[in-house]
Amino acid sequence: xxxxxxxxxxxxxxxxxxxxxxxxxxxxxxxxxxxxxxxxxxxxxxxxxxxxxxxxxxxxxxxxxxxxxxxxxxxxxxxxxxxxxxxxxxxxxxxxxxxxxxxxxxxxxxxxxxxxxxxxxxxxxxxxxxxxxxxxxxxxxxxxxxxxxxxxxxxxxxxxxxxxxxxxxxxxxxxxxxxxxxxxxxxxxxxxxxxxxxxxxxxxxxxxxxxxxxxxxxxxxxxxxxxxxxxxxxxxxxxxxxxxxxxxxxxxxxxxxxxxxxxxxxxxxxxxxxxxxxx
Length: 279
Hints:
This protein is mostly helical. The protein has a domain at 9-149: Tetratricopeptide repeat domain (Serine Threonine Protein Phosphatase 5, Tetratricopeptide repeat), CATH 1.25.40.10. It is built from 9 helices and no strands. The longest helix has 75 residues, at 135-209. It is rod-shaped.
């Protein structure tokens, strides 16, 4: 009885395992058929080929041939982002070294197209770890290293140029700040000078206001006298002043008086004076 039960359990397990294995094999076969169809279409109708590859992956998501060939088709069309993604999936899901080697090799090619030479070096190294004898991968690795070295030198040059530009910009900024400061100092100096002059003028006004009444009175008298002198008629060029005319008249009167006195003296002496002209 026990043997019979054990036999029945074994049979049931075998039947169950066969159904799962049969379903897996069927999915794999269907996926491979789609991959084969896509491979036939890819050179003539990329859209139809892409659709066939996606159908294959919907039936079997880890179909290495479908992932790898879809990645290659994207690479041929220049869609490097999708190509890189599909080859990364291939490298992750592949179980054989040969499949991994091909996936990493093509990842390196995509990265080189994207000018990511340093990352391409690492991809080619991973490819050689899975197949050290591939001369094509070794050659591509040498190219990637040279490209990475050149990019590194260019980056250093760019950094040095940027540092130089930043240094020059800093010098220009310092010079501009210095000029602005000098201008501000000059403006402050001019403002101080104006303020000093204003204060000096204020001090002079205060001094005038602080003068004694006597001083102000003397200044007023002096000002009145100068004003009076200015109001007097001034002699014009070539004319005698009133004072000069007065002095001249006095001199003439004195002279006339002297002549009169002399004539009176002569009359008193009896001097004969001619009244008629001689013939």
